[in-house]
Design goal:
This protein is of the alpha/beta class. The protein is 41% helix and 17% strand. The chain has helices spanning 16-27, 39-53, 63-69, 82-93, 118-126, 141-144, 163-175, 189-206; strands spanning 7-11, 31-36, 58-62, 72-75, 97-100, 131-134, 155-160, 179-182. It binds NADP nicotinamide-adenine-dinucleotide phosphate. The site of NADP nicotinamide-adenine-dinucleotide phosphate has 23 residues, from helix 1.
Amino acid sequence: MAIKHTIIAILGGTGKQGTGLALRWAAAGYTILIGSRQVEKARVSAETINRQLGIKSASGLSNQEAARRAEVSILTVIHSAHHDALVSLKDIMQGKILVDATSRVDFHNPKPPAAPCAAEEAQMILGPTVRVVAAFQNVPARSLSRNLGQPLDADVLVCSDDIPAAELVIGLAEAAGLRGYFAGPLINANVVEGLTSILISMNKHYGVKDARVRVAGISTEG
Ligand SMILES: NC(=O)c1ccc[n+]([C@@H]2O[C@H](COP(=O)([O-])OP(=O)(O)OC[C@H]3O[C@@H](n4cnc5c(N)ncnc54)[C@H](OP(=O)(O)O)[C@@H]3O)[C@@H](O)[C@H]2O)c1
């Protein structure tokens, strides 16, 4: 397995979405730092990933220490903890990339959330020198954890005001077996976050669990 040099922190990485992303990136050769409010819980999660994949490159830390050591942090805490988690990370994240995967959609009553979207809130809390990217809000956790090493039939709409940061995240989506597309500035993540309410409604109507988004009409090859 090729060792990838970007160190990725997953903040709230003990949860469903964080674990799914961590498994895919760890399987692709990245060094993964699982963050949690409880270091011991993070260590257990990292050890489970290492055992499952037969690797040693995942480790568990506090959210703050994981963010401090990483170049890119993915925020996957539950949406009710979004604001406080960001406030606690503000100083550490200066000059770094924060990828916000938050969808503030109620599973029981799915409706598009009000603007500003979670990623815009993150930018407001963290300040202008943090390179905030919105991504992965529409990718179901249960599909990430299955068939590791295989491409996943799902696309990632990546929004940011910082195009080089968005391109780095598109590369990470591809390393995880997804296809990533630049989908415009951070404000467009309002629509992407709202798409989650459409996917949940479709899951309910069609009796499935992991409806996903696919983009047509754009070739990203060559
Ligand atoms: N599940 C999905 O299919 C899915 C898909 C797309 C996007 N998302 C987004 O990903 C995020 C996580 O979803 P999830 O389903 O993975 O959630 P989850 O498993 O319920 O929880 C994620 C993590 O949030 C942390 N957390 C809980 N309460 C907290 C608090 N008060 N302060 C700080 N951290 C707290 C926990 O980590 P510790 O206890 O270890 O600190 C927990 O492991 C959400 O924003 C969601 O919208 C989820």
